[in-house]
TrEMBL record:
Belongs to the aldehyde dehydrogenase family. The active site is at residue 255. Pfam families: Aldedh. It is an enzyme of class 1 (oxidoreductase). Residues 18-471 form the Aldehyde dehydrogenase domain. It comes from the Bacteria. GO terms for molecular function: oxidoreductase activity, acting on the aldehyde or oxo group of donors, NAD or NADP as acceptor. Keywords: NAD, Oxidoreductase. Its EC number is 1.2.1.85. This is 2-hydroxymuconic semialdehyde dehydrogenase.
């Protein structure tokens, strides 16, 4: 899939090109156009024009029908989306087939279903006058779109996480300008093809490619014509976008990084806890914001848990590539740092060798560490790779203190067969999501997001519709 911008209903390739690299082999797959400031200006202008034209005039039923056509278009090009997602990310084909592409189509259908009556809903209340003689008033609340929404999506789950924002933004009647990660442009371009074929009015959806700081991402997030910003990515980038947004007091919705904890109590089903931690630490080679990097295990089962987790990690070998050579080098630098800080490497700790073309790719070994103090950088900082540090605890209060001693607060897991403990502990973990005896079991209607440095706001179901629309109070004196 050739990467192209999509602006005002027109595909174009303005701007200098930069290479798109295969993370499996390290070879160049093609070039991607870098959006200039002028391309970004054109996209914002097209989006604003759409709000005054066909898309702005579309009612809820028409918007819902458009979203369903997009979902059908994704299904019709299912294999193309799978191939593009696998090529860009290097992830297993099965992951794209069962998660990325079905969830992308599902996002559009889910928000089409939620749309009816929701953005235009009215809360009606009759309120007595505030002072004698003023009579009564009829107050009702309507919701209107924010306007032009900038959507910045990451490279780890590029199709899923972009549609997670695009669908509700369009459902509420906004026009969007999307900038995918420069590492993963292909499915975004294919989505633009589907949206074009679905007959969504020109300018309602716009796509620009490019980098972040000093490039397309910054041009977009500092643009005076942008009315809101929705971003998923690392916390440092979120902080930079917030500074840009502050110039125009632009509202933001952020889903940021995590250094996610798992608490494994001695009464846990240890088979389930080990299996769950293998999934939560090593799925997509740890390149998911929800992945577990800190594991705290009650002391009576600590040694057995570490031994079993290490054995499972060694069985995985080279589980999948990092997205880029730069990110591989970052993860390997943390492996070296862990040793310098005094870690015991239970499994992994390096880069695998395959004896084939994958040796030119960006692989690292799934890694299990122990023995570090909580002050170690390896324990404190998000690595975003297939690695976890395992430490013991003795009491429930200690486990909670360890889990909560982090600048991040995105997701956590609790492993216990004690129902009372589960209900007691889960609300006290300082994360936006707490899974008990499972990991990444997601209902798209539930709130998704983090606390502290892990984000601002919530996505999912009506929570997304709340962000992408503005409540307006109307008061009529009777």
């Amino acid at each position: 899939m050739k990467a192209e911008h999509y602006v005002g209903g027109v595909f174009r390739s303005d701007g200098p090109g930069f290479p798109l690299v295969d993370p499996v082999t390290g070879t160049e797959m093609g070039t991607v156009p870098e959006a200039t400031r002028e391309v970004v200006d054109d996209a914002v202008t097209a989006a604003r024009a759409a709000l005054k034209g066909g898309w702005g005039a579309a009612g809820a039923e028409e918007r819902a029908a458009a979203l369903r056509r997009v979902a059908d278009g994704i299904d019709a090009r299912f294999e193309e989306f799978v191939e593009a997602e696998v090529a860009d990310t290097g992830r297993p084909r099965s992951f794209a087939e069962t998660v990325d592409v079905p969830r992308a189509a599902g996002n559009f259908r889910a928000y089409a279903d939620l749309l009816y009556g929701r953005p235009e809903r009215a809360y009606v209340t009759q309120i007595p006058g505030w002072s004698a003689g003023t009579g009564e008033a009829l107050n009702y609340t309507v919701r209107r779109p924010l306007g032009v929404v900038a959507i910045i999506s990451p490279w780890n789950l590029p199709l899923l996480l972009s549609t997670w924002k695009i669908a509700p933004a369009l459902a509420c009647g906004n026009a969007v300008v999307v900038k995918p990660s420069e590492e993963t442009p292909s499915t975004a371009t294919l989505l633009a093809r589907v949206i074009d074929e679905a007959g969504v009015p020109d300018g309602a959806f716009n796509l620009v490619h490019g980098h972040g700081a000093g490039a397309a991402g910054e041009f977009l997030t500092r643009h005076a014509g942008v009315d809101a910003i929705a971003f998923t990515g690392e916390s440092a980038t979120g902080a930079a976008i917030m500074r840009n947004a502050a110039e125009h007091v632009t509202p933001v919705s952020f889903e940021l990084g995590g250094k996610n904890p798992a608490l494994v109590f001695a009464d846990a089903d240890l088979d389930a806890a080990v299996d769950g931690t293998v999934r939560s630490s090593f799925t997509h080679s740890g390149q998911i914001c929800l992945c577990t990097e800190r594991v705290y295990v009650e002391r009576p089962v600590f040694e057995e848990f570490v031994e079993r987790l290490g054995a499972r990690a060694r069985e995985l070998g080279g589980y999948g590539p990092m997205i880029s050579a730069e990110h591989r080098d970052k993860v390997l630098s943390y492996y070296r740092l862990a040793r310098e800080e005094g870690a015991t490497v239970v499994a992994g700790g390096g880069a695998p060798r395959f004896g084939d073309e994958r040796d030119g790719g960006f692989y690292v070994e799934p890694t299990v560490l122990t023995g570090l103090p909580e002050t170690a950088r390896t324990v404190r900082e998000e690595i975003f790779g297939p690695v976890c540090h395992v430490a013991p605890f003795d009491t429930e209060d200690e486990a909670l203190a360890l889990a909560n001693d982090s600048p991040y607060g995105l997701a956590s897991t609790v492993w216990t067969t004690d129902l009372s403990r589960a209900h007691r502990v889960a609300p006290r973990v300082e994360t936006g999501i707490v899974w008990v005896n499972c990991w990444n079991l997601r209902d798209l209607r539930t709130p998704f997001g983090g606390v502290k440095a892990s984000g601002i706001g919530r996505e999912g179901g009506e929570y997304s519709l709340d962000f992408f629309s503005e409540p307006v109070n109307v008061c009529i004196q009777i």
